[in-house]
């Protein structure tokens, strides 16, 4: 058969010859080595049984063994030898390990404070099992531990095992003991920060300490920020101090100012001196130093990003100060945006998205960049759209993309597939996101606009800043841009409302989502309106009905009126969002177009239970029904309500549960003085009586 070599083939013989030659060469080398070692041992006078493998127990040399493992006899015959036992080698190996262990113990015992460190580690082993140690025993152990470490702290903190002992001592110590440790380490905090193990001790001192301990530690980093922020260990400690509430705002400002140049590190500032970390204030005080300051700041930013040390909050704050003070459309701005895009893995942009300053940096970069820059920045967040939409700061990047990127098709393809979810899971996905405190913002921003109830003050301030900066970089009209984006997102949102109406109505956010989507989105809404009115059917006095919740009542009223009633202007404002509305009140008359016509659909379904709506929690829905424009059956509703005037009067004057309790108990009446003059009854029913 093809591919199988014959045993007698030349190639097979050649392979055997080569293998034998190789084994023979190894054997000859081994024999020479054994002979050489044996000669050396003979000179030193060592016994041959101590050669450790150079001879057998019977004194026969290994070199006398043949290839097949036989011993050559005097008569030339070959006698099989007994295989060498592994007992001696294993016992010798065990003895060797024991000797090494003894040597290691002797070396440890020879070190300074060896006994104290050993005892402290035993105490630590006991203390770390918190639930297994009684309070009295723990108190005694902590006292003994402090007796060991006091006066010897610096000998403990730079070792990986003994520094844990000090951390445990800090954890269970009182404030005076912690201050004693902090004073003993004074002058060494910079060195501690650079240590792989001791750096954690600084965080323990700051977390468990007070302002006095903080003022021991933080000033020791003054003048060293530019060096420490590039150090692999100290940078983490420095950013922990800066990021949280461990340092005061003034101390953080002093640390950040050192990014602006070496002179801010050389001429140190005292902690009690009030300083500003805003680069604009520094440049205003010394305008002639603008060029070296901006260059020094950019170089330090560049060094950290190139080292992939881009997760520091201090770095993000420094980048924000830089982009806020760069001249628009300048070479500096171009260079900075190129730095943001230079990270091929996108770690820099991803880290920036999850801090307050970082998200603002990315948003401003989108506003200042070219169309190509914006696409590249947005591409870095592929597969991360969901994560940043859930973040308190990251969602601002999506809002900025809505406002500055002219290519709405590219935005729709980059953001909406992940934000809205996969097609087969989209309805459930959107139902979950609609009630999320943060994720609902990028979902509702397009149908709603810049409403204060949706956006935070930071969001509104950022969008105003983007408006002023995009004038030279964006060409498309903002109204047209948002109309195109709304058209792309409307169909999935309306479908989600139609499929998850009952689920959404169980929460206030869900009810708000339904009303805003139906009022603000563009497209066919019949299916969604039918789903809403089906839930509204039935007796509203039954527990769990949508009319029983305040959010459900507001939703139904807004839908039957075709918009939200604006108290300031005395009219209904629709849901057309194509203008930068910066408050809940606007002086522009906005009406939903085309009208929802929900009032006719609603009345036809709830007509059998109209009186229950008018006298229950949903009374304002009936008020809205009578006030809505285009409702053709107002007279029919008024006639039906007029037949039940007595029930309306009873509901309007019925005392509340709270007032009944006040009447029953004088003590309760004394506790509720502020509610004595509260109006009794259903206010919606009173309004209906006035209409009658």
TrEMBL record:
Question: Bias category Polar residues: which stretches?
Answer: 61-74
Q: Which SUPFAM superfamilies does this one have?
A: ARM repeat
Q: May I have one GO cellular component term?
A: nucleolus
- UniProt record, GO biological process: regulation of translation
What's a Pfam family in this record? CPL
Q: Give the residue ranges for region: Disordered.
A: 1-101, 649-686
Per the record, where are the segments of Acidic residues compositional bias?
Answer: 47-60
**Location of the PUM-HD domain:** 119-493
InterPro entries, A to Z:
ARM-like, ARM-type_fold, CPL_dom, PUM-HD, PUM3, Pumilio_RNA-bd_rpt
The reply on keyword Cell inner membrane is no
What are the entry keywords? Repeat, RNA-binding
Per its record, what are the GO molecular function terms?
Answer: mRNA binding
List the biased-composition ranges (Basic and acidic residues): 8-26, 37-46, 92-101, 655-671
- Does the record carry RNA-binding as a key word? yes
Q: What does this protein do?
A: RNA-binding nucleolar protein required for pre-rRNA processing. Involved in production of 18S rRNA and assembly of small ribosomal subunit.
The name under which this protein is listed is PUM-HD domain-containing protein
